[in-house]
Amino acid sequence: MVTWENDKVTQENDKVTLENDKNDQIKQENDQVTLKYDKVTQENDQVTQENDKVAQENDQVAQENDQVTQENDKVTQENDQVTLENDQVTLENDKVTQENDMVALEHDQVTQENDQVTRENDKVTQENAQVTLENDELTQENDMVALEHDQVTQENDQVTRENDKVTLANDQVTQENDQVTLENDQATQENDKVA
Protein backbone atom coordinates (compact mmCIF):
# COMPACT_ATOMS: atom_id res chain seq x y z
CA MET A 1 0.00 0.00 0.00
CA VAL A 2 2.79 2.44 0.92
CA THR A 3 4.73 1.51 -2.23
CA TRP A 4 1.70 2.28 -4.38
CA GLU A 5 1.31 5.68 -2.75
CA ASN A 6 5.03 6.37 -3.20
CA ASP A 7 4.73 5.48 -6.89
CA LYS A 8 1.81 7.86 -7.17
CA VAL A 9 3.86 10.62 -5.52
CA THR A 10 6.73 9.91 -7.89
CA GLN A 11 4.38 10.22 -10.89
CA GLU A 12 3.00 13.48 -9.57
CA ASN A 13 6.53 14.77 -8.96
CA ASP A 14 7.46 13.84 -12.54
CA LYS A 15 4.40 15.76 -13.70
CA VAL A 16 5.53 18.78 -11.69
CA THR A 17 9.00 18.49 -13.23
CA LEU A 18 7.45 18.53 -16.72
CA GLU A 19 5.37 21.56 -15.77
CA ASN A 20 8.48 23.30 -14.47
CA ASP A 21 10.34 22.52 -17.71
CA LYS A 22 7.43 24.00 -19.63
CA ASN A 23 7.58 27.06 -17.37
CA ASP A 24 11.30 27.45 -18.15
CA GLN A 25 10.48 27.26 -21.87
CA ILE A 26 7.86 29.99 -21.49
CA LYS A 27 10.37 32.12 -19.55
CA GLN A 28 12.90 31.77 -22.39
CA GLU A 29 10.23 32.81 -24.93
CA ASN A 30 9.38 35.77 -22.70
CA ASP A 31 13.07 36.77 -22.63
CA GLN A 32 13.17 36.62 -26.44
CA VAL A 33 10.08 38.85 -26.69
CA THR A 34 11.72 41.30 -24.27
CA LEU A 35 14.87 41.42 -26.43
CA LYS A 36 12.74 42.06 -29.53
CA TYR A 37 10.90 44.84 -27.69
CA ASP A 38 14.22 46.46 -26.62
CA LYS A 39 15.47 46.33 -30.22
CA VAL A 40 12.30 47.98 -31.53
CA THR A 41 12.63 50.67 -28.84
CA GLN A 42 16.22 51.39 -29.93
CA GLU A 43 15.13 51.65 -33.58
CA ASN A 44 12.33 54.02 -32.58
CA ASP A 45 14.82 56.22 -30.69
CA GLN A 46 17.05 56.30 -33.80
CA VAL A 47 14.13 57.34 -36.01
CA THR A 48 13.20 60.06 -33.49
CA GLN A 49 16.77 61.41 -33.56
CA GLU A 50 16.72 61.45 -37.38
CA ASN A 51 13.39 63.30 -37.34
CA ASP A 52 14.82 65.88 -34.94
CA LYS A 53 17.83 66.34 -37.20
CA VAL A 54 15.61 66.83 -40.27
CA ALA A 55 13.48 69.34 -38.35
CA GLN A 56 16.60 71.31 -37.39
CA GLU A 57 17.73 71.31 -41.03
CA ASN A 58 14.28 72.54 -42.10
CA ASP A 59 14.46 75.36 -39.58
CA GLN A 60 17.90 76.33 -40.89
CA VAL A 61 16.67 76.35 -44.50
CA ALA A 62 13.63 78.44 -43.51
CA GLN A 63 15.89 80.99 -41.80
CA GLU A 64 18.10 81.17 -44.89
CA ASN A 65 15.03 81.67 -47.09
CA ASP A 66 13.84 84.51 -44.87
CA GLN A 67 17.28 86.13 -45.07
CA VAL A 68 17.34 85.89 -48.88
CA THR A 69 13.81 87.32 -49.07
CA GLN A 70 14.81 90.28 -46.93
CA GLU A 71 17.87 90.91 -49.12
CA ASN A 72 15.70 90.72 -52.27
CA ASP A 73 13.23 93.22 -50.84
CA LYS A 74 16.08 95.56 -49.95
CA VAL A 75 17.54 95.32 -53.47
CA THR A 76 14.10 95.90 -55.00
CA GLN A 77 13.63 99.06 -52.91
CA GLU A 78 17.07 100.27 -53.93
CA ASN A 79 16.30 99.60 -57.60
CA ASP A 80 13.04 101.58 -57.41
CA GLN A 81 14.87 104.49 -55.81
CA VAL A 82 17.60 104.43 -58.44
CA THR A 83 14.99 104.34 -61.23
CA LEU A 84 13.34 107.49 -59.88
CA GLU A 85 16.69 109.20 -59.64
CA ASN A 86 17.57 108.12 -63.19
CA ASP A 87 14.36 109.63 -64.60
CA GLN A 88 15.12 112.94 -62.91
CA VAL A 89 18.73 112.98 -64.10
CA THR A 90 17.62 112.15 -67.68
CA LEU A 91 15.47 115.26 -67.75
CA GLU A 92 18.32 117.42 -66.46
CA ASN A 93 21.09 116.63 -68.94
CA ASP A 94 22.52 114.17 -71.47
CA LYS A 95 25.67 113.69 -69.46
CA VAL A 96 23.66 112.32 -66.58
CA THR A 97 21.92 110.11 -69.15
CA GLN A 98 25.30 108.55 -69.96
CA GLU A 99 25.87 108.05 -66.27
CA ASN A 100 22.43 106.50 -66.06
CA ASP A 101 23.46 104.07 -68.80
CA MET A 102 26.27 102.96 -66.54
CA VAL A 103 23.83 102.64 -63.67
CA ALA A 104 21.56 100.62 -65.98
CA LEU A 105 24.45 98.22 -66.60
CA GLU A 106 24.82 97.93 -62.84
CA HIS A 107 21.10 97.30 -62.62
CA ASP A 108 21.44 94.49 -65.13
CA GLN A 109 24.11 92.97 -62.93
CA VAL A 110 21.83 93.25 -59.91
CA THR A 111 18.99 91.71 -61.93
CA GLN A 112 21.18 88.80 -62.88
CA GLU A 113 22.11 88.38 -59.24
CA ASN A 114 18.43 88.50 -58.31
CA ASP A 115 17.67 85.88 -60.94
CA GLN A 116 20.40 83.70 -59.48
CA VAL A 117 18.97 84.15 -55.99
CA THR A 118 15.51 83.26 -57.34
CA ARG A 119 16.88 80.07 -58.89
CA GLU A 120 18.55 79.21 -55.61
CA ASN A 121 15.27 79.85 -53.80
CA ASP A 122 13.48 77.51 -56.20
CA LYS A 123 16.13 74.87 -55.53
CA VAL A 124 15.71 75.27 -51.77
CA THR A 125 11.92 74.98 -52.20
CA GLN A 126 12.39 71.69 -54.07
CA GLU A 127 14.73 70.46 -51.35
CA ASN A 128 12.15 71.37 -48.71
CA ALA A 129 9.53 69.39 -50.61
CA GLN A 130 11.92 66.40 -50.68
CA VAL A 131 12.54 66.72 -46.95
CA THR A 132 8.78 66.84 -46.38
CA LEU A 133 8.37 63.59 -48.32
CA GLU A 134 11.15 61.99 -46.27
CA ASN A 135 9.47 63.17 -43.07
CA ASP A 136 6.21 61.59 -44.23
CA GLU A 137 8.05 58.31 -44.85
CA LEU A 138 9.66 58.46 -41.41
CA THR A 139 6.25 59.14 -39.87
CA GLN A 140 4.85 56.06 -41.59
CA GLU A 141 7.80 54.02 -40.32
CA ASN A 142 7.15 55.33 -36.80
CA ASP A 143 3.51 54.30 -37.11
CA MET A 144 4.60 50.79 -38.14
CA VAL A 145 7.00 50.59 -35.19
CA ALA A 146 4.22 51.72 -32.86
CA LEU A 147 1.96 48.97 -34.21
CA GLU A 148 4.74 46.42 -33.66
CA HIS A 149 5.15 47.70 -30.09
CA ASP A 150 1.44 47.24 -29.47
CA GLN A 151 1.62 43.71 -30.85
CA VAL A 152 4.63 42.84 -28.68
CA THR A 153 2.83 44.23 -25.63
CA GLN A 154 -0.21 42.07 -26.38
CA GLU A 155 2.03 39.02 -26.79
CA ASN A 156 3.74 39.79 -23.47
CA ASP A 157 0.35 40.09 -21.77
CA GLN A 158 -0.69 36.71 -23.21
CA VAL A 159 2.55 35.05 -22.02
CA THR A 160 2.07 36.61 -18.57
CA ARG A 161 -1.43 35.16 -18.34
CA GLU A 162 -0.12 31.74 -19.38
CA ASN A 163 2.65 32.00 -16.77
CA ASP A 164 0.08 32.85 -14.11
CA LYS A 165 -1.92 29.74 -15.06
CA VAL A 166 1.20 27.57 -14.84
CA THR A 167 2.10 29.10 -11.48
CA LEU A 168 -1.37 28.32 -10.11
CA ALA A 169 -1.07 24.76 -11.41
CA ASN A 170 2.37 24.41 -9.77
CA ASP A 171 1.00 25.68 -6.46
CA GLN A 172 -1.83 23.13 -6.67
CA VAL A 173 0.64 20.30 -7.35
CA THR A 174 2.84 21.49 -4.48
CA GLN A 175 -0.12 21.37 -2.10
CA GLU A 176 -0.98 17.87 -3.33
CA ASN A 177 2.65 16.78 -2.82
CA ASP A 178 2.62 18.16 0.70
CA GLN A 179 -0.59 16.21 1.40
CA VAL A 180 0.91 12.99 0.01
CA THR A 181 4.12 13.54 2.03
CA LEU A 182 2.02 13.96 5.18
CA GLU A 183 0.14 10.75 4.40
CA ASN A 184 3.43 8.95 3.74
CA ASP A 185 4.80 10.11 7.10
CA GLN A 186 1.66 8.88 8.84
CA ALA A 187 1.87 5.53 7.02
CA THR A 188 5.55 5.21 7.98
CA GLN A 189 4.69 5.82 11.64
CA GLU A 190 1.96 3.19 11.47
CA ASN A 191 4.38 0.74 9.83
CA ASP A 192 6.94 1.42 12.57
CA LYS A 193 4.28 0.66 15.20
CA VAL A 194 3.33 -2.59 13.46
CA ALA A 195 6.97 -3.54 13.16
From TrEMBL:
Q: List each coiled-coil range.
A: none
Q: Which stretches does UniProt call biased (Basic and acidic residues)?
A: 1-42, 92-125, 146-165
Region annotated Disordered sits at 1-195
Specify residue ranges for compositional bias: Polar residues. 57-70, 78-91, 169-189
Please report the name of this protein according to its UniProt entry. Answer: Replicase polyprotein 1a
